[in-house]
Design a protein that fits this description.
Helices cover about 45% and strands about 10% of the residues. It has 14 helices and nine strands. Belongs to the 'phage' integrase family.
């Protein structure tokens, strides 16, 4: 190892430049803070003593700007375990944290032993590529976008807490969500599905009621599993959607008195067919002492994944394509648009969206069939009558000669 003309910068026996310095004392551990590096902030090796010196100056300035706050050598894993994950748990719904916890732990494990201040642009770029690559995580673009966004937010908090001066992940391009396409059933496909269900069987009757209600109302999955009979107004033919259900298992659930969004609380008008379907099911339920949850065979709420299994089972029997549980919500929108040419405003209120713009964002492509109907109605609407003799005298050089 040999010194260079720059204080704190050296060159090793292999000709590689590096810096080494002391920053002060860690305010938590009381130990001297030593910093040594062979690469710049982007993870590139130094090719000159000047480059190493510039990076050393940057590191010193960064340290002094945050006054040595906390543990300068804190790893990403320590930060996630002691700061970010506990804070995240207090800021989101219990159900949200339960779903996202595994993702947060996966992020933590990826960078667990790397110091926060040592995470380089190259590390972030490799992580981005890994999320999207088939040889890596192989996530869908939408999910990869979600995970990468969560990672960036974790480093945002590290900046806010003054563990970092800058969020290095912001120097890497974000992963776009992409256009999500949710398969749905047309009216004809839905008719094929329900034709395979036998109402004589109690559980199959429940399956029919669930598929029918979701298709005919467009409610969200968690809104449907939270429905009580008190929410059904048979006299005025209305359905009150004011609750959602958080459920881990059949014995661990909570009926929340709010929906996904503030505008999700709504009253939906019911057609006469749906009223009759629900009345028949209520009578059958009451015979075995069930009088609370609409979708239940034993007095307890249905597990969210049950709807997906019901769809899979009867889609296979009907020989129609399988859809997700939320596909029934999209099916309802398609049904109203294509069968009744419903307006955006009415559909928005029925779906519980905060604005018609949100409705158009998700369902604008479904109005394509309506455009064809308009074209048909336009045919013959204008009386075509042209002049028998021209009333214009053309002068000069004309492109078309008589």
């Amino acid at each position: 190892m040999a010194k260079t003309k720059y204080v704190g910068v050296y060159i090793d026996n292999n000709g590689q430049y590096f810096y080494e310095t002391e920053l002060g004392t860690d305010r938590i551990t009381g130990k001297r803070l030593r910093k040594k590096g062979r690469t710049n902030q982007q993870g590139r090796k130094f090719t000159s003593a000047l480059q190493a010196y510039k990076e050393l100056v940057r590191v010193k300035n960064e340290y002094h700007q945050v006054n040595g706050y906390g543990n300068y050598h804190m790893t990403y894993g320590q930060f996630m375990n002691t700061v970010y994950i506990p804070a995240y748990e207090t800021e989101v719904e219990e159900s949200t944290f339960y779903v996202r916890k595994r993702t947060l732990e996966s992020m933590r494990d990826r960078f667990a032993n790397i110091e926060l201040r040592s995470i380089a642009v190259e590390d972030v770029q490799r992580y981005r590529t890994w999320l999207l690559s088939d040889k890596g995580a192989g996530y869908s673009q939408a999910y990869a976008s979600l995970v990468f966004g969560m990672f960036r937010k974790s480093l945002d908090m590290a900046v806010d807490m003054q563990y970092l001066e800058v969020n290095v992940s912001k120097k890497v391009k974000a992963i776009p969500k992409g256009k999500a396409v949710v398969p749905y059933w047309t009216k004809t496909e839905f008719e094929k599905v329900i034709s395979t269900i036998c109402l004589d069987d109690f559980y199959e009757h429940l399956c029919f009621v669930m598929l029918w209600t979701y298709f005919m109302t467009g409610i969200r999955v968690s809104e449907g599993t939270a429905l009580w009979w008190d929410d059904v107004d048979f006299k005025n033919k209305r359905l009150r959607v004011h609750h959602s259900l958080y459920l881990r298992n059949k014995s661990n659930w909570k009926r929340k008195d709010y929906t996904k969004t503030e505008d999700g609380k709504r009253i939906i008008s019911l057609d006469e067919d749906t009223i009759q379907v629900l009345q028949a099911w209520k009578q059958r339920q009451s015979k075995i002492g069930i009088d609370d949850f609409v979708f239940s065979y034993d007095g307890t709420p249905m597990i969210k994944s049950t709807l997906a299994r019901i769809i899979q089972r009867y889609a296979k029997l009907a020989n129609v394509h399988r859809i997700q549980a939320k596909g029934l919500r999209h099916s309802h929108a398609s049904y109203l648009i294509n069968e009744f040419n419903v307006s955006v405003l009415i559909l928005s209120k029925r779906m519980g969206h905060s604005s018609p713009e949100i409705t158009l964002k998700h369902y604008s492509h479904m109005w394509s069939g309506v455009d064809e109907l308009i074209a048909e109605e336009m045919t013959g609407n204008i009386n075509i009558r042209t002049a028998e003799k021209s009333g214009i005298a053309f002068n000069g050089n004309q492109a078309v000669k008589k």
